[in-house]
């Protein structure tokens, strides 16, 4: 009998601080032990699904009631919910393209660090022997990072869902994840534009022609960011249409690449990211390697007690996160 078949599953496994059920299972049943076996490529949670013959996706997926065939298999249900929500968040993820680093904390209070650099500070000059070496001062921010709890309440009776296929239920859970990701992106854009409460709002420039967006405006956005790199541009639908219809973006080779691969041509090599989190007359250019920090108080959290003991009824799925500016001048907004 394989090791994973001997593990006693119970809801206390969800109480390990900073660890998901998958993390706990991996510590008890490491995936490295299955290299070269039929279970290679599965993580510890997926092996438990195999153990109880629960198929959560694809043709012939099981019904929700399959999770509740025993107390052991019921303990897997909250983790299934969390993973489906996270999958939805990942599938519509834009944050990974604009966030430089992710910090996970155990509490609700967090102060980021920052360094206010003048133009002179950004130029490392020759230091003569015995001379004073210029210094970069790194400080703790005055104000705490604002964390926001985003989530939804699952309200349903077990009887209403017990015969529903898991792949259909997964679609609903993934959509909850998409809503959370969309809300978090709005929070991130708010911090980029207005700062995180530490006097670090985004620098603003205007386009050369009101109501228009030209290629020279993109060049201006690039030059205003110097010495930082313009490697990401956030744009609403109207701005996306204006950028993609610029004559400089209609190069035959670029068009062929879009038609063959679906990859949009990007201005100056920057990744063009579509979002409705900003107004129609605004675009944001940033250096995604050093502009923004994401702070998370844990991962996706589910009411495991209610999901295991009460088989749905009313249970929350939530995620707590906030954002902080790292370098104030690593982002620029342009109105047109």
CATH 4th-level superfamily of the domain at 199-294 and 326-335: hypothetical protein PF0899 domain
CATH architecture of the domain at 199-294 and 326-335: 2-Layer Sandwich
Count of helical segments?
10
Note poorly predicted spans.
none
Q: What is the CATH first-level class name of the domain at 199-294 and 326-335?
A: Alpha Beta
Q: Overall 3D geometry?
A: elongated
Major sheet summary line: 5 strands, mixed
User: What percent of residues adopt helix (DSSP H or I)?
Assistant: 25-40%
Task: Determine the N-to-C terminus distance.
Answer: 67 Å
Please state the average pLDDT score.
Answer: 88
Radius of gyration: 24 Å
* H/E series: HHHHEEEEHHEHEHHEEEEHEE
Tally of strands:
12
Indicate the proportion of strand residues.
Answer: 15-25%
Give me some keywords for this one.
five-stranded mixed beta sheet, alpha/beta, hypothetical protein PF0899 fold, 12 strands, 336 residues
Q: Your description of this structure?
A:
With 336 residues, the protein is α/β, with parallel strands linked by helices. The termini are far apart. It has ten helices and twelve strands. The protein is 31% helix and 18% strand. The chain has helices at 21-28, 44-51, 71-74, 77-91, 158-161, 166-194, 215-225, 237-244, 252-261, 304-309; strands spanning 101-104, 113-114, 139-140, 147-156, 203-206, 232-235, 271-274, 282-286, 292-296, 301-302, 313-325, 331-335. Among the domains are: 1-51, no CATH class; 199-294 and 326-335, hypothetical protein PF0899 domain (hypothetical protein PF0899 fold), CATH 3.30.2320.10. The strands form three sheets. Strands 1, 4, 9, 10 and 11 form a five-stranded mixed sheet that branches.
């Amino acid at each position: 009998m394989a090791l994973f078949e001997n593990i006693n599953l119970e809801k206390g496994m969800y109480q390990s601080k900073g660890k998901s059920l998958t993390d706990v299972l991996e510590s008890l049943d490491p995936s490295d032990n299955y290299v070269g076996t039929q279970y290679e490529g599965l993580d510890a949670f997926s092996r438990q699904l195999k153990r109880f013959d629960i198929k959560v996706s694809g043709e012939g997926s099981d019904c929700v009631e399959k999770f509740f065939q025993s107390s052991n298999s019921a303990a897997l249900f909250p983790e299934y919910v969390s993973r489906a929500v996270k999958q939805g968040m990942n599938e519509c993820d834009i944050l990974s393209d604009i966030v430089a680093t992710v910090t996970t904390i155990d509490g609700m209070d967090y102060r980021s660090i920052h360094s206010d650099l003048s133009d002179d500070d950004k130029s490392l000059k020759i230091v003569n022997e015995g001379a004073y070496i210029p210094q970069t001062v790194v400080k703790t921010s005055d104000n705490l990072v604002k964390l926001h709890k985003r989530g939804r309440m699952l309200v349903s009776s077990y009887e209403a869902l017990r015969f529903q296929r898991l792949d259909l239920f997964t679609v609903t859970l993934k959509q909850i994840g998409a809503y959370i990701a969309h809300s978090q992106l709005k929070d991130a854009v708010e911090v980029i534009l207005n700062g995180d409460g530490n006097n670090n709002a985004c620098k603003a420039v205007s386009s050369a022609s009101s109501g228009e967006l030209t290629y020279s405006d993109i060049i201006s956005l690039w030059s205003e960011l110097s010495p930082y790199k313009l490697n990401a541009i956030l744009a609403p639908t109207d701005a996306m249409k204006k950028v993609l219809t610029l004559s400089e973006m209609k190069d035959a080779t670029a068009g062929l690449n879009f038609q063959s691969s679906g990859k949009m041509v990007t201005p100056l090599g920057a990744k063009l990211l579509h979002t409705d989190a900003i107004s129609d007359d605004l675009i944001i250019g940033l250096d995604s390697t050093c502009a923004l920090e994401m702070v998370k108080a844990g991962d996706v959290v589910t009411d495991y007690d209610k999901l295991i003991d009460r088989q749905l009824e009313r249970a929350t799925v939530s995620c707590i996160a906030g954002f902080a500016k790292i370098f104030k001048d690593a982002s620029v907004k342009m109105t047109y």
